[in-house]
Amino acid sequence: MFVNATLRCVFSGLWLALLPVSAMAQCFICDRVVEFTPKTAKCFLMNAEEFRRAAQTDPAKRTEVNLKDCGGPRGLDAFPNLDSLADARQTTPRVTYLLDLEAIECVNQRLRTARQMSDLRIELDTECE
Fold first, then answer.
1. What is the residue range of the signal peptide feature (predicted)?
2. Total domain count, the chain
3. Is residue 113 in a domain?
């Protein structure tokens, strides 16, 4: 029984050693889609180095990217009706994301090469490989 447990540990260690580094480093709690308005895209670009530094110093190599102070939604209109709330939830992009270092660098590159700063959606799984 001890031998079987030892062999299982050895083989599981070999299996992990064979995984590519990117598969081991993947952030499973990070956001996989990032959406920008022209204001939040400009804000991200202005603060990209700060986000990158924060992710580099984090042991898990990830950080919160908060774009709320840069033109994101500030709250609700006075006494909105229920229909306007439903519409706002569907059309207003989020302004806070959890991104790893690789995603921050990819988003930075994608925004810098964008032809125009219109509303932009970046799917990190497909656009940042």
1. 1-25
2. 1
3. yes
